[in-house]
Amino acid sequence: MPRMADPEKTRVGGLLAQADRPPSPKQVQKRRLSAAMRQVIERLVTTDAPEAELGAVAERLEQYAEHLETHPRRTRLEGFAESANAGEERGFFDYSPLIGLSNPLAPPITMREQDGRVYGDVRFGQAYEGPPGHVHGGFIAASFDEVLGYAQSLTGSPGMTGTLTVVYRAPTPLHADLRFEAGVDRVEGRKIFASATLRAGATLCAEADAIFISLGADHFKGMALRASRSDRSEEGQA
Fold first, then answer.
1. What's the start-to-end Cα distance of the chain, in Å?
2. Edge-to-edge strand order for the sheet containing 110-114?
3. CB of 160 closer than 8 Å to CB of 101
4. Can you say whether the dihedral through the CA atoms of 121, 122, 123, 128 is positive or negative?
5. Helix then strand then coil, % of the chain, to nearest 5
6. What domains can be seen in the chain, in order of their start residue?
């Protein structure tokens, strides 16, 4: 049996509950802007708008991108999914490229935990197309990594992906309700073994197995600190 931590007694378990807490006013507006950007991306991929309109909009977006540079940036520690395991609650939920409501790159996947299993619901839009009418396999693999990463965090000793194996069983349709299901199979020392499936209704689209290597919160904090120092060094040379 996998070694599961009591979610009420671990920091990770407490962080999972953060998803149910009301967002701050700033988060509300950031999520709203990200949702609007997702709509732009979805429609831009297939639009046949006239050249003049595309040029005018591009210019306005370029101006706003320059304006955003005038505002302070959040810390590096908040910017990656594993930061939730290092004590930064906002990082895991809002800024992930796959589940983050404040990240316009995210589909996003909506995840929940029930009885030690993790479930992720998602609809991939046109921007994620690979084969005609279907999801690109690379996005499926990345989604498995995120869902399995969420599942392995329930052990209370989360780590980083060591290996990820994906078997594609059937093409995964775009614009369809999809369901990921994942769980921890066993823990052997620092190795956490987990597996997951992806289904479109009754159709099994893909399966995945992963091994995570438990590293501890200090390791993630150290990674973020080194990245921040690198950013400051690059800014100083600019």
1. 53
2. 110-114, 117-122, 178-188, 191-200, 203-214, 159-168
3. no
4. negative
5. 45, 25, 30
6. 11-221 (3.10.129.10)
Closest CA to 120 of 128, 131, 130, 109: 109
3-class DSSP assignment, residue 187: strand
Which tokens hold the place of 11? 């920091």
Distance, in Å, from the CA atom of 51 to the CA atom of 21, rounded to the nearest integer, reads 44
Instruction: Report whether 99 contacts 146 (CB < 8 A).
Output: yes
pTM of the model: 0.81
Cis bond leading into 7, ω under 30°? no
Please give the Cα distance from 98 to 87 (Å, whole number). Answer: 20
Q: pLDDT tens for residues 96-153?
A: 999 999 999 999 999 999 999 999 999 999 999 999 999 999 999 999 999 999 999 8
Find, among 169, 168, 148, the residue nearest to 158 by Cα.
148
| Measured distance CA(74)–CA(28) in Å, rounded | 16
Contact criterion met (CB below 8 Å) for 70 and 3: no
